[in-house]
Design goal:
Radius of gyration: 24 Å
Helix content: over 70%
C-alpha cells in the first residue's frame, strides 16, 4: 500500500519538515502572542463603539439644560426635546443602511474609519450650535456614524478573532459603548453641554490613528481575491510563530464556496434566511425591551419618579452598574455560554420593568412636575398617591430597579445580540445582513423613542414599563426555541450547522 505523501520519508516529499512538538511554555507564548495582536486590533476598532455610546446618551444631561436655557434659539420645547432625543436613532438607521453597501465595498476596517467623518462633524455642529437645526443635524450625523460602526465593528471583531476568545472579544463593542455612556454621565457632572460635545471628538481621532496600523479582515480580503494580503493579515493577527496554514485554507475554502454574488433565490434558502431571521428578530426584540428610550430619557425618568438622590447622580450610578455588568458578561460568555446568559438577562429585565411599572402606578408622586415629560398626575395611574418625601427610602426603588434592568440587559441581551449577529450570519450575506439588522434595530428604536413621551402623557409612565416587561417574557421563549449555542465554534462550523442542520456542530 502506498504511503501518503505527507508521511513519506526523503527529501522529495519533505514538503512540511517535521518540527518537535511545542512545549507547554511554547504553546502559552504562542497563545499570548496571538491574543496580544488581536486584542490591539479589537481595541482600535471598538473605540468607534465608545463614541457611539457617548453620543447615544448625550441628550440625558443636555435636554434638561437646554429646557432651562436663556437663549431663545436653543431653548427646547417638549416637541423639540422629543426630536432631539429620537433623531439619533434615525441617523443610526441610515448608517445601518449604508453599511449594507460600504461593508462589502470598502471592507470592515475602512468602513469603521469612514464613520469618523460624520462623527467628528456632528460633534462640531453640536459644540458650536447657534440654533435648533444645528443640534438636530449634529445629532443625526453622530447617529449615522453610530449605525455604521454598529454594523461593521462586530463583524470585524468576529472575523479576526479565534474561537477561544471570540466570545469575550465579541462583548467588547458593547463594553466600550457602555464605557462611553458612563464617561458622558461622569463628564456631565463637570462640564457644560457644549464642552461635552468637544470631548466627544477625542476618541474619534484616536480610533483613526490606531486603525491606520491595523490589518483588514482576512475573510474580507480573501473574498476580494487578495490572498497574499489576507495571509499577511492572518500572520500578523496570529503572531509570527503561529502556524496559520490550516486556518487560512479553511477560510479560503469557505470563501471559494461562496465566491459568487448571492441571488434572491439563494437568499430564500433556509440555511441562509434562517440565521438572518434569527439575527433580525434578536435585534428587534432587543430594542423592544426599552433600552434606548430608558437611556435617552434616563435623567427625565428619574425626575418623574421621586428618587432620593439627584437625577444626575442617579444617571452616573446606573452607567457604572452597566459597565460592571458588561464586564461580567465579557468574562463569563465563553464559560457559561450564550443561551444561559440570555435567559438570565431576560429574567432580570422582566423583574425590573415590572417593578418600575408597579412603583409608578402605586408609589409616591414627585413633588414637582418635570418639563420634559410634562406628565399630569392623573396619567401616573392612581389619583390618591402620597406625595414623595425627600428622605423616603421608598424612592430608592426606581433607582434600584433601573440598575437591575441595566444590569440584566448588559449581561446578555446587550452584548450577546451583537455577538450572535456577527457569528451566525453567512459570509456571503454578512455585510448586507448586518446592515439590515442595524437598520431594523434603529428604526424600532426611533419608533419607541419618539412615541415614549406620547405614550406616557396619554396612558401614564407605568404603561411603557409593563409593555417592556411583557417583551422580556417573549425574549425568554424566543431564546429557548430559536437561538443556537455558538460557544467555542469557528464561524465556518456555525455556518455548516445551518447548512446541514447537524446539531453535533454546536453541541
Amino acid at each position: 500500500m502506498q504511503e501518503p505523501l505527507l508521511g513519506a520519508e526523503g527529501p522529495d516529499y519533505d514538503t512540511f519538515p517535521e518540527r518537535p512538538p511545542p512545549t507547554p511554555g511554547d504553546r502559552a507564548q504562542i497563545r499570548d502572542s496571538q491574543n496580544r495582536t488581536v486584542f490591539l486590533a479589537t481595541f482600535a476598532a471598538v473605540l468607534g463603539n465608545f463614541s457611539f455610546g457617548y453620543a447615544l446618551v448625550y441628550t440625558s444631561p443636555v435636554i434638561p439644560a437646554l429646557e432651562h436655557s436663556s437663549d431663545p434659539a436653543l431653548h427646547l420645547t417638549e416637541i423639540q426635546s422629543s426630536w432631539f432625543g429620537s433623531v439619533f436613532t434615525l441617523g443610526a438607521a441610515a448608517g445601518g443602511l449604508s453599511a449594507m453597501v460600504l461593508s462589502d465595498f470598502l471592507g470592515r476596517k475602512l468602513s469603521i474609519m469612514f464613520s469618523a467623518v460624520p462623527s467628528a462633524a456632528g460633534y462640531a455642529l453640536m459644540a458650536g450650535a447657534r440654533g435648533f437645526w444645528m443640534l438636530l443635524l449634529g445629532r443625526t450625523l453622530t447617529g449615522f456614524a453610530g449605525g455604521l460602526t454598529a454594523a461593521c465593528i462586530p463583524v470585524y471583531v468576529s472575523e479576526i478573532s479565534t474561537p477561544q476568545v471570540r466570545g469575550a472579544l465579541g462583548a467588547t463593542p458593547q463594553l466600550m459603548a457602555v464605557f462611553g455612556s458612563l464617561s458622558l454621565y461622569a463628564l456631565g457632572l463637570l462640564l457644560p453641554w457644549r464642552w461635552l460635545a468637544v470631548a466627544g471628538e477625542g476618541p474619534v481621532f484616536v480610533m483613526i490613528l490606531l486603525l491606520s496600523f491595523m490589518p483588514n479582515s482576512p475573510r474580507f480580503l480573501l473574498s476580494k481575491g487578495r490572498d497574499e494580503e489576507a495571509m499577511r493579515a492572518l500572520v500578523w493577527l496570529r503572531g509570527a510563530h503561529a502556524d496559520v496554514r490550516w486556518e487560512f485554507e479553511q477560510i479560503r475554502d469557505n470563501v471559494q464556496r461562496q465566491s459568487s454574488r448571492m441571488s434572491w433565490a439563494e437568499a430564500r434558502d433556509p440555511h441562509v434566511c434562517r440565521p438572518i431571521a434569527i439575527a433580525l428578530l434578536m435585534r428587534f426584540l432587543q430594542q423592544l425591551t426599552g433600552i434606548t428610550p430608558i437611556l435617552v430619557y434616563l435623567q427625565s425618568i428619574f425626575d418623574r419618579t421621586a428618587v432620593l438622590l439627584p437625577p444626575k447622580d442617579d444617571a452616573a450610578i446606573v452607567g457604572a452598574v452597566r459597565l460592571f455588568s458588561v464586564l461580567i458578561a465579557t468574562l463569563t460568555m465563553d464559560l457559561a455560554g450564550r443561551k444561559v446568559l440570555l435567559f438570565v438577562s431576560a429574567s432580570i429585565m422582566f423583574a425590573a420593568n415590572l417593578t418600575l411599572g408597579l412603583y409608578v402606578n402605586f408609589g409616591p408622586r414627585p413633588t414637582t412636575p418635570n418639563s420634559t415629560l410634562d406628565l399630569e398626575s392623573a396619567a401616573l395611574g392612581a389619583t390618591e398617591q402620597p406625595q414623595a418625601s425627600s428622605t423616603s427610602y421608598l424612592t430608592l426603588v426606581p433607582l434600584l430597579a433601573t440598575m437591575f434592568f441595566i444590569m440584566g440587559y448588559a449581561m446578555g441581551w446587550g452584548p450577546i445580540t451583537w455577538l450572535l449577529m456577527s457569528e451566525i450570519l453567512p459570509l456571503r450575506a454578512r455585510g448586507v445582513a448586518s446592515g439590515l439588522c442595524v437598520l431594523a434595530s434603529w428604526l424600532t428604536a426611533f419608533a419607541l423613542t419618539k412615541s415614549f413621551m406620547l405614550a406616557v402623557n396619554s396612558f401614564g409612565l407605568q404603561v411603557p414599563f409593563f409593555f417592556f416587561a411583557a417583551i422580556c417574557l417573549v425574549n425568554l421563549v424566543f431564546t429557548g426555541c430559536c437561538v443556537p449555542e455558538t460557544r467555542g465554534r469557528s464561524l465556518e462550523q456555525i455556518e455548516s450547522f445551518f447548512r446541514t442542520r447537524r446539531r453535533s456542530f454546536l453541541h
